């Protein structure tokens, strides 16, 4: 029996990559390729909804999937921990699963896990993330996720002097985040941790998004079919060997 998938945002850059990956999976097929302006009434006809739209539309897609009682994999960034937590009652009532993946790259989740582990040891932590100039949201979902996991690993907020000044970046879970949007960039994140007499920088650089995301997309699509409740982060489906998964239900 074929697993039917509705891919919303199918013609976008990420949507195209996701479509290609699903085409290569046995027993799983994109039966509904939808755009951001299409009606979502047909979501009740599928086994899984994959959202690859943009932040404004993503909320509508998730709401429609919950109403249709269909599991949904959210590949759209811009979802904060507070927004995700607000979905808990509706998701529980529907008895479905909602999976949020800020970044499909395996290297990215390793870098984030390392940053969360190191964040316990350094009082000064800042994130500099760069994406292409066409990316709508900032900070990136990956940067938000990294900052939240660093804060969760600490007993006290990071030291962030002069954050009242706009040039100091946007604070996410107490961590200053600086977003660059420039042409010629795919995705790069530097987590800079500083302590007395030393500094540690953890860098992840995406060179080819299609190649980097494909393994994670395959894992996420298969895993999202069987999830109940809310799960955030690809690390919940991959054993990266750096402590216990830091995500899980929200």
UniProtKB/TrEMBL annotation:
Stretches assigned to the Dihydrodipicolinate reductase C-terminal domain: 111-236
InterPro entries: DapB_C, DapB_N, DapB_N_CS, DHDPR_bac, NAD(P)-bd_dom_sf
Domain Dihydrodipicolinate reductase N-terminal: start-end pairs: 4-104
GO molecular function terms noted in the UniProt entry: 4-hydroxy-tetrahydrodipicolinate reductase
Alphabetical GO biological process terms: diaminopimelate biosynthetic process; lysine biosynthetic process via diaminopimelate
Catalytic reactions on record: (S)-2,3,4,5-tetrahydrodipicolinate + NAD(+) + H2O = (2S,4S)-4-hydroxy-2,3,4,5-tetrahydrodipicolinate + NADH + H(+); (S)-2,3,4,5-tetrahydrodipicolinate + NADP(+) + H2O = (2S,4S)-4-hydroxy-2,3,4,5-tetrahydrodipicolinate + NADPH + H(+)
Pfam families: DapB_C, DapB_N
Main enzyme class: oxidoreductase
EC number(s) recorded for this UniProt protein: 1.17.1.8
Keyword tags: Amino-acid biosynthesis, Cytoplasm, Diaminopimelate biosynthesis, Lysine biosynthesis, NAD, NADP, Oxidoreductase
Cellular component terms (Gene Ontology): cytosol
SUPFAM superfamilies xrefs: Glyceraldehyde-3-phosphate dehydrogenase-like, C-terminal domain, NAD(P)-binding Rossmann-fold domains
NCBIfam families per the UniProt record, alphabetical: dapB
Protein name as catalogued: 4-hydroxy-tetrahydrodipicolinate reductase
Species this chain originates from: Microbacterium mitrae
